[in-house]
Write a structure and sequence with these properties.
The chain is about 40% helix and about 20% strand. It has about 300 residues and is an alpha/beta fold.
């Protein structure tokens, strides 16, 4: 059994894929497996995957018709054997050669359901490195956190970062709670990480930046905000309320949907009535402040 399974969903990232593979394969923790899933790439990503697979037997490779990150990650999870799961973006790089070693040893020592850590952003041209966003700035190392109290803290300090590539997850725990990714949406991490946190009672942080996250025009961060973004956030809200009606869910929705509607002023005006109507029918407007609603309907 591998100590860490690195899950790598891949879609049209050929210029960056070698750098991602190199940063994983050069890790000091050698008892790893890399599960690469090509999600219907139209560039030469698959050829790069196969080249690296021939060089290193720790790589498993799968191809699928384009179905999105959720389905690609779920496919990889079906084949993962590691004690811990790390879900890495295929255009990112690990910041040093001992990242997985440090994370594994820390999570194992603390018997963590999962641990979380920080990242730095860098631009596609490798210059103009952005200021780091530290989701651990209000938490303490070597302190055990319960999921609901931790989420309350992160929401209160506006430091909640839901991306799964800042987590190392206990595989056994993930199986026990039966958590997978919701297919067919973007912003799937908002749902997955929130449910994971609220289903966990042993969470620890490492106050170090272990990932260098690339920002480029076609990355999720760099993409234009559209009606689909808003529709997917509303689907996340639907699923969270099916998961639980606890006050923390309503707090999370107030934290999230106000931002979603504020940013929603960027979508075409013709799409706004349908989004507004869906939110109204679902009772979500109570989570959206008047300032955000006003902004949403501006040009």
């Amino acid at each position: 059994m591998a100590k860490v399974s690195v899950i790598l969903p891949i879609y049209n990232v050929a210029p960056y894929l070698g750098e991602a593979f190199d940063s994983i394969l050069n890790q000091s923790l050698t008892e790893i497996e890399i599960i690469a899933v090509d999600d219907g790439s139209t560039d030469n990503s698959w050829e790069i995957i196969k080249k690296y697979q021939q060089l290193d037997g720790r790589i498993m490779a799968f191809q699928q018709v384009n179905q999105g990150q959720s389905v690609a990650r779920n496919l990889a999870l079906q084949h993962a054997t590691g004690e811990y799961i790390y879900m890495m973006d295929s255009d990112d790089v690990l910041s040093s050669s001992d990242v997985l070693q440090k994370c594994y040893e820390y999570a194992k020592h603390n018997e963590a359901d999962f641990i979380f850590f920080d990242r730095d952003l860098f631009m596609d041209d490798h210059v103009g490195i952005a200021a780091p966003l530290h989701s651990t700035q209000f938490t303490e190392e070597n302190k055990k956190y319960h999921g609901e109290s931790l989420l309350n803290l992160l929401l209160d300090t506006t430091s909640y970062n839901c991306v799964v590539w800042l987590l190392l997850i206990n595989h056994k725990h993930l199986k026990q709670i039966g958590l997978t990714f919701y297919p067919g949406i973007i912003h799937e991490d908002e749902l997955f990480t929130t449910v994971l946190m609220l289903s966990s009672t042993s969470i620890y942080c490492l106050k170090q930046s272990f990932v260098r996250h690339r920002v480029w025009p076609s990355s999720t961060v760099g993409k234009k905000y559209t009606r689909r973004n808003m529709d997917c956030y509303l689907t996340v809200a639907d699923q969270l309320l099916l998961f639980s009606q606890k006050p923390i869910i309503h707090k999370f929705l107030r934290y999230t949907l106000s931002k979603v509607f504020y940013t929603g002023h960027l979508i075409p005006y013709k799409d706004k009535p349908a989004v507004f109507w869906r939110a109204m029918k679902s009772g979500y407007l109570k989570y959206v402040g008047p300032k955000s609603l006003f902004k949403f309907f501006t040009w």
